[in-house]
User: Fold this.
Amino acid sequence: MNIKTLSMTIAAGSLFATSAMADYTGLTPDYSYNIDGTWTVRIYANFSAETDELDAVYGDSNHGLLVSASDGFFNVPVYTGATAMDNNQAFWSIYPSMEWDSMVSIGMTHSASGGTMSNIGIDFTDFNAGGDIVTNNGSWYSTPDQPNVLAGADMRVLLGQFTMYGLDSSVSGVLNLQGKVGDFETFVVEDVAFYYEAPAPGALALLGLAALASRRRRK
Assistant:
């Protein structure tokens, strides 16, 4: 199965597709500092409705995918893998660093967080050793019948968690996204570039307060 076939599978049940951004509103990061001196960013795709969904993050021959860390990614060498499906929360109390293992996702923080996901066409060997994710014919994805694809009350879907070494490091790349808006419209957003550095400790505290205030307003 190649990426074109995969796209047709994910879009099954939709009446038409569009390259417009539809209800997708961009990427946003959540940051954290970890007890071992690393820092983590969770990258979310944001939407304007709870029923919007993210089905796939992909690269193809016209729009490649790249995720790269300036000083390499932190990856736990045991009991984890490249995706959230490979991270078992039951082991976090034994190996706390598993909680911030670098991994790709469709709305999942660990294997039991609800739903399921898979991947095709991506060789994660380098990524599991701290290197880049690169593909021009691959994807990580979930099917529309899974709950983890939905934007939900926060109106966002996690697409990756990446942990870096040192506060002078950064993560950057280019992604392509596919999802669905409403009952029928499949959308594609191409060449979404991102770049994140570790915020200063004071800025991180302010970001945490802002996130808390936002959650309170939504209740």
